[in-house]
Amino acid sequence: MPLERHFSASCVEEALDVLGRRGPEVLICAGGTDVMVALRAGALPPEKRVLLDVSRIAALSGVRELDGGAEIEVGSLTTHALASQDAVLARSSIILPRACRSVGSPQVRNRGTVGGNVLTAAQCADTIPALLSLNASAVLAAPGGRERIVPLADFFPAPKRSAIEADELLTALRFPSLGPRWRGSFYKLIRRAAVAKARLSFAFLARLSPDGVVEDARLSIGAALPVPARFEAAEALLRGSAPSAELVEDAAEACAAQMAAATGKRWSSPYKNPVLRAVARRELAAMLGLEAPHENGF
After folding, report:
1. Does residue 134 register a pLDDT over 60?
2. pLDDT tens track for 204-249
3. What CATH number does residue 280 fall under?
4. Is the pLDDT of residue 104 over 70?
5. Structural domain contains residue 110
6. In-domain check, residue 296
């Protein structure tokens, strides 16, 4: 069914008014990098008859430090290009600017938004693994001044589905700022050099104590699980341990085992399983300050 109405909101209140009246019918458009492709292909869900353009809501763009810098807020309309160059994000998240820099092409990064990337709920979305490792939460506004804050760990109930309700608007992503002893790695494995979906994307963070012990570890790998999630068994192996080749090997094996258990045997398994293990081993070793040779071209 073709679109029947188009609304352009200049503020959050206007957008929420439309969502409150026609929520289930509304398709929200921000950067339009996914919506316009679906619109031209005639692939919109049949119930979506109203297009709501929120791209002009200036308040939803930009990076802000909250609570004296203890928490970082990324407006949902912040473009990947802006996020990839933001000094606050580079200092406080380490890996999010790298993830945003890997998205699509310069044209897509200039239009596409961090919030839109999250709401696709795609297993291959570039920013989701980074935000999961950052313990990020989604800030959702609704009519009547209601607000919900949902951890991204609970935001993806099923493949390609998010927990946003029909009358809600994603206004921001928030996460605790990382301290000086954190290290990070982001690596995207793709078929070609540019404008490609991730075959796998690795978003790793670790905090080391002054004597070199791993105090905390957060690992997420995109395009590896049916629903975006962290690799908790590998994280548990790393926490409280001194970095070593054996530790890295065990953690990489735990990552591969979690993917295999979650996805079963698929056509891509003979490729993905050894590649995930090899790249995880390399990225973990580099992040923890160990020698990390490139293996088999990865």
Report:
1. yes
2. 999 999 999 999 999 999 999 999 999 999 999 999 999 999 999 9
3. 3.30.390.50
4. yes
5. yes
6. no
- The token duo for 141 is 């506004």
Indicate the DSSP class of residue 152.
G
How large is the C-alpha radius of gyration of the chain?
20
Q: In this structure, what token pair is assigned to residue 239?
A: 């926490």
Contact 189, 211 (CB under 8 A): no
Q: What is the pTM of this model?
A: 0.94
**What CATH number does the domain containing 101 carry?**
3.30.465.10
Residue 187 lies in a domain: yes
CB 92 within 8 A of CB 69: yes
The residue count for the chain: 298
Query: What is the C-alpha to C-alpha distance for residues 221 and 203, in angstroms, rounded to an integer?
Result: 6
Q: For the chain, what is the mean pLDDT?
A: 93
Is residue 162, in this structure, part of any structural domain at all? Answer: yes
Q: What is the pLDDT of residues 18-77, one digit of tens each?
A: 999 999 999 999 999 888 888 888 888 889 999 999 999 999 999 999 999 999 999 999
For the CA atoms of 275, 276, 281, 286, the dihedral, rounded to the nearest 10 degrees, stands at 100
Q: Give the domain extent around 67.
A: 58-176
Asked which of 154, 176, 198 is the last residue of a domain, the reply is 176
Q: Is the dihedral of CA 14, 18, 24, 30 positive or negative?
A: negative
Of 176, 201, 228, the domain-final residue:
176
CB 212 within 8 A of CB 243: yes
Same-domain pairing of 152 and 205: no
